[in-house]
Automatic annotation (TrEMBL):
GO terms for biological process: translation. This is 50S ribosomal protein L14, chloroplastic. Keywords: Ribonucleoprotein, Ribosomal protein, RNA-binding, rRNA-binding. GO terms for cellular component: mitochondrial large ribosomal subunit. Belongs to the universal ribosomal protein uL14 family. It comes from the Eukaryota. It comes from Acer saccharum (Sugar maple). Signal peptide: none annotated. The lineage of its organism: Eukaryota, Viridiplantae, Streptophyta, Embryophyta, Tracheophyta. GO terms for molecular function: large ribosomal subunit rRNA binding; structural constituent of ribosome.
Length: 142
């Protein structure tokens, strides 16, 4: 008899797949921002590179911010349905609230995605967490 695997939050030391084309393949969660126990869909985490593409812009061990776009833990929706994915995935974003470019530009609290493309499905719950830029880059919204 097979045992059912327990689905939990993304917490410290969870390895997540990177689903943008920034050059990273896998990151490990170091910390969940906003003082929560664990990260769910749309939450921002601090992560360290575990695996990167050779000749890429990013190097193993560097610390970055990321937004969780897919979670294996199911989440209920208001219409009674539930959304659940096969893997835990993250999109890398730049540091929150940092001005981009030479001029001081007012940047919203949410970081901007590093890679110009996002692969795979992304849930529409990200709109409520104000990650609209990730939704516009995604190829499929679930």
């Amino acid at each position: 008899m097979m045992s059912q695997q327990q689905r939990t939050f993304m917490q410290m030391r969870t390895v997540l797949k990177v689903v943008d084309n920034s050059g990273a393949k896998k990151v490990m969660c170091i910390q969940v921002l906003k003082g929560k126990k664990g990260a769910r869909l749309g939450d921002t985490i601090v992560a360290s590179f575990k695996e990167a593409m050779p000749n890429g812009k990013v190097k193993k061990g560097k610390v970055v911010y990321g937004v969780v776009v897919r979670a294996a833990m199911q989440r209920g929706r208001y219409d009674g349905s539930e959304v659940k994915f096969d893997d835990n995935a993250v999109v890398l974003v730049d540091k929150q609230g940092q001005p981009i470019g030479p001029r001081v530009v007012l940047v919203d609290k949410q970081g901007q995605p590093i890679g110009p493309r996002v692969f795979g499905p992304v849930p529409h719950e990200l709109r409520k967490k104000k990650h609209v830029k990730i939704l516009t880059l995604a190829e499929h919204i679930a």
